[in-house]
Request: fold
Amino acid sequence: MDGTTPAIAVSGLHKSFGRTHALDGLDLTVTRGEIHGFLGPNGSGKTTTIRVLLGLLKADSGTARLLGGDPWTDVASLHRRLAYVPGDVNLWPNLSGGEVIDLLGRLRGGLDTRRRDDLVDRFDLDPRKKGRTYSKGNRQKVAIIAALASNVDLLLLDEPTAGLDPLMEATFRRTIEEERKEGRTVLLSSHILAEVEALCDRVSIIRNGKTVETGTLAELRHLTRTSITAELAGPADGIAALANVHDLKVEGSKVRFDVETAALDDALRHLTSVGVRSLVSQPPTLEELFLRHYTEETARANGKATTS
Amino acid sequence: MTTTVERVQSTRDIESTLTGFGTLLRFALRRERIRIPVWIAALTLLTLGTVAGFPDLYPTAESRQSRASLMDSPAATAMSGPGFGLDDYTFGAMLANEMIGFLAIFVALMSVLMVSRHTRHEEEQGRAELIRAGIVGRHASLTATLAVTMLTNVLLAVVLTVVIAGLGIETITWGGTALFAASLAMVGVVFAAASAVSAQVFEHGRAASGMAGALIGIAYALRAAGDMGNPALSWLSPIGWAQRTKSYVDGTALPLLLGLVVAGALVAVAFSLSTRRDVGAGLRQSQPGAAGASDALSTPLGFALRLHRGAVIGWTSAMFLFGAMYGSLASEVETFVEDNPAMQEFVQRMGSASFTQSWLASIMSMLAMVCSVFGVLAIVRMRTEETSGRAEPVLSTALTRPKWVTGHLAVALGGGAVVMLSAGLGLGLSAMASTGDSALLSDLLGAALAYIPAVWLATGLALTLFGLLPGAVHAAWVVLGYGLFIGMLGPLLQLPGWLTNLSPFSHVPQLPAVDVEFTPLVLLTAVAAGLVMLGFGALRQRDLESV
Reply:
């Protein structure tokens, strides 16, 4: 297997549970060495995708390749090369955190004890406590340490920082940065947008089991709107007639509108032709970007309901 | 001003511990809306099916008396009951004598499971926190749980009375049936209260229901000991009290009163213990564990062993004690026979030694059924690992599903064998000590060995269900219930051979009373192996189900 095979190559993946279509033709490509953000609203199929990649679920149709292998048939050989952090960690009540870390690491094929001790230190975990006595954040730390203490090619992280305090989240980010430098590939499902922005090279947004957008964050930003607030020298005529301008508000010489980033140039040219006294331009925040993608379907459904 | 505040405060104290009781009661009833009717229907139909056959099976007084003479034996006394009304063995006396013990086990089980499901298991899952965070008094949850369980027992008694007395069979009177059914409900209520105490003491739901389950076993063995020897022992057992209402013979409700008093005391203990601990915690604080895993833990088998360790140790020691309790009665068998002129003729033909042996053989078969619970539980445990999401990180390592299952299965089968042998050892040692016959030890160990394939078959069936129909893994309990039914009521009902043969336990030679036959043992092992293979194959193909 050469280095150019993608770490994860999924196309047209379908998976139903009874009448629920959890995955409805999902595509996902993660290239080697990248940190790939895997985003989508709750219940959009992120965990199902990861479970298919882990060979825990068998896909109904479509292809899924992981590190050049088949996730359903090559379980043992693939799992030696990957580590997984579930979003909801449930520990055994009678095993200590340290025991779980060692157990999972050794079952994976061995763990680096120096790295383990370093991580236990870094994440400030008491490894002697028993499963039930850990808080949610501490249970999460156990799973993170168990995954990161092994020397693997690929990390599948399903909302790994849910429940971590901001300090630990920062530690997590630093650690993942180091993993990137080591050349590891990471698939990171997360709802924490600051984390995604700080870490991810590329992101895929899925909704209702389908991929709706893939690209770098810069590319995704490009698809969205910039909001402009300006005070003009003359009357604000003609702005409404411009293509791709939305939510225009005019108060005397003051205007406020959103413009699709692709049409920003035209809009600014029009403003300067009138004369600009002051201008505030706000690039879309990540929140806005995601909210738009997450809610588009709902908006469309509502629109349909009102027109019909 | 101050007085108003005080008054508000004190009314609040009284109200507050039970605030939310009504809501929680309806909530618990909703959660049990399938289980309650199923339990009641199953127990009622079972009783109905048995009783309805009586007039055809035992049409004459002579036929009933010949059944009575069979019941006047040590084996029947140990398995069923003390034999009230054997002189005039009416249908009513037959029903009470031969069925109360059997039904009491299931009523107790129903109550124990229901209470622990709503108490310790809820705390363990963290769901209790969600409830207690609402406007809910400290005692509301436990009170609602006990109320639902008691309500279920009362409902069972009413349904049972109406259906069984409604048959209109001679001597199965309304009054007698009401007493019979109330006795069973009393057993349920006492065990519900005992389970409520056990739920306070143990931190893990499994340990709590395990302890309550062991109490059922102890109650059954105590009454067997009392019925065969010192009658005082029977008065220590709720099942013994139920039998001592002598329903249909010369009925008395006094034992019911005793049951209610004991249940009330146990409930008081449970409430008082519950105020001395935190939600989710046991009475003992949990101790810190090791900072890292030992080498032994890091193998699939070692890992499985660690998860089942408590169960293996608990079951091995409980079954040893259970066996030993029965073994100590072995010498009573001879005394029993000496006191019974009808039996003596029998003994002269067979020799008293073989009489003791056939008694031990029937005890052994009952012990084997109890031991097979361990194997089924071990497979059910694997299902719990799956649905709780704990299997997921493990199966995301290089550990493949077949290896994961092999670890657990090895513990289920190996542990099942150990538990069975431990029961045999307990029975053997104690029978040897009680009768002075040293050959009994090796005989009974051999008998225990012979039951291992049947124990494995139950485990294998559970594994097949786990692979093919994981949601229905609990259906494996039907095999054990059926085995117990055939073992305890089969002869009474004179069931056709094929029905008896459906129980795996019917195929095991009745050691030490007869010579060993290897063919059925090999066949049972082969069927168990086939079931295991089927389960393995199915498990490789299916989705892992986690929430």
Remarks:
- Confidence is low (pLDDT under 50) at residues 1-5 of chain B.
- The first helix of chain B runs from residue 2 to 16.
- Chain B touches chain A at residues 124, 203-204, 280, 286-293, 297-298, 300, 303, 306-307, 309-310, 388-390, 392-401, 541-544, 546 (CB under 8 Å).
- Chain B has two domains: 16-53+101-282, 299-547.
